Structures are given as structure tokens and as C-alpha cells.
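Allow me, if you will, to draw on your knowledge of protein folds for a short while. The matter concerns a single protein, recorded as an amino acid sequence and a row of C-alpha cells. Kindly check, if you would, that the fold set down in the C-alpha cells agrees with what the sequence suggests. You will find the record immediately after this paragraph.
***
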Amino acid sequence: MAFRLALLPGDGVGPEVVEAAVLVLKTVERTFGVTFETSRHPIGGVAIAAGQPALPSSTLDECLKSDAVLLGAVGDPRFDHLPRDRRVETGLLALRKGLNVYANLRPAQAWAALEAVVPFKADRVAGADVLIVRELTGGLYFGEPRRLDEREAFNTMRYTEAEIERIADVAFQLAGTRRKRVTSVDKANVLETSQLWRRVVSAVAARYPDVQVEHQYVDACAMNLVLDPRRFDVLLTENLFGDILSDEAGAIAGSLGMLPSASLGTGPGLYEPVHGSAPTIAGRDIANPIGTIGSLALLLRHSAKAEDQARAVERAIGAALDAGCRTADIAEPGHPTLGCQAMAQAIAERITS
């Protein structure tokens, strides 16, 4: 039976980067003799503009029937005036909750071909390869109670032992397949949730004696990620800290447009680029599709269990960069650039079995 893939192009540059990933996927199908059954569904501003909620029930139903979900981007400034519970971003939060994806994987690596555009000295970042494992369904983004009044606002950061234990298990298991180092990020000197976080992570670490663990305060980690990104292997974080640190890690790769992500849990996996909808460049065919194509590689690895195909896509990304293929966000001044679809074609042409 064909692998069922739900495509959610979404807003802004989302449709462009999803189409770029589909172009690469079709090459994977031809090269490896496999079949993926795809379907497209609305989310975000596109859904609101059609008179539906940000996450239509039909979209969630189809995602739950699929083996994996590939999302472009969610975000449309036309609807920023709406009340919080009707805004575009609620569609993404509801999708994560509906799919029960609690483990967000955000890899960031230094590409040798992009040394000239990375804001680090080459000898500081060369070889950096960081995997951020972010808890995705707890913390400030979901904690209750919360309120916004004229003169006061508050949010609640809340975590349970079970939530922390399950994300820590994911981080330690993945570290065991890499360089066997986990850095757990918290603010245990001032936050009770972080004190629980550190205690639970330490208990989980005892089950993985071959994996080295260290604890860092989030402010120190943010500094060290800039000063010496090569010291990190797997970064384990709660929701808010992981959101911020993974965007900072975009500097390692040269651009947020280079960063893929996977969100895993008990249902279909959700895959999306880290960048947003970028409405100012939407429809101009200049977005960088590598974050979405890299997310496709993660989808092949984690949901389709097709490691050879995943590696083929990742090798093709590297080969295209080595050949000098660049979108505008990763190009040196004066260097020729490719559009979104042309960059995808350059990657697809380099896929081999």
C-alpha cells in the first residue's frame, strides 16, 4: 500500500516550498521505485479566508488518516486583528495537539560550502552538527490559566514529570545514535518547572549510561551556542527555550531557510521548515526550499522508515550547495542565485540511489 502523505501548503511562501519538496519527492519515487500518495488540505490564513477555522476539522481528519504530514508555513498578517482564539497561529497549535506530537527535532549543521555566508569564523563553526530536541506540547504556550486584560497579562508555565520523562527519553535515544552527548537546558536557579525538569532528566539519564549528560542554564547555553557550537550534540529543551535556541541555531547553517524540523509523537509525524510564512517575499519564487526539502528527508527517515532515501535527499542538498547553487538568502554578494523551484530542481537532479 502506498505511503499516505498529507500536504498542508498554508500561507505566504508555504505553497512554493511545499511544491519544491514535492518535485524532489517525485524524483525519489522514480529513483527508488516507490510510491507516495499525496493530498492537499487548507490550514492557517488560507482556511480563514475561506470562512473556516484556522484548522478545519476536515484537515485534521485527513491528517490523522495519513502516515505523515508535510506543512509549508502558517501566518498571515491580514488576520492579526482577530481575537487570540481565532488567529492564524492557533491552527498550528491545534494541529500539533490533534496529532499528539510532543517531540520536536530541529537539526542545524554547518555546510562547508556556506562558510562565506555564516556569521562565524570558519574555524569556530566548521563541523558543527547540533540536534535540538524541543518539548512541544507543554510549558508557557499551553499552560493554563492565562489572561490578557487592558493593564495586566499573565501566562502559566506548567510541566508534569511524565511530559519531561518522555521527551528526555527521545533525546537520549537519539544521542545514542549520534555522538552520545546530551545537554539539558533549563533555568533551575529561578524556575520551579526547571527544577523539576533537571531532576527528571537526571533520573532518565541513569537509564542511558553510555550517553554523557550535562545541564546548562538557558542563558549560558545561548552564549555557548554562538561561541562554540561544535561542543553540542543533542540539546534537550522545554518548549519556549527550544523555540528561541533553534532560531539562534539558524546562524550555524547560514539562514533560517536551511533549517528543517520533525515533530513526533503517538500519531502521524508532522514535518515543516523552521522559517515562517515570509509574506513579504511570497509569490516571488525566491524563498529557500532547503528547509522544507530537509524536512522531507526527516519524514523519509522517521515516518517512512526509508533511511536510504533520506540520505539520498540529504546528499543531494550537499551536492547542490557544493556545486554553487544558491538562493538569495545564502548567496554572497554578486553570486548568481536560483529561485525556489530552480533550487529544488538542482537538488532533485543530484538524487542517486
Observations:
- The chain has two domains: 1-101+260-353, 119-253.
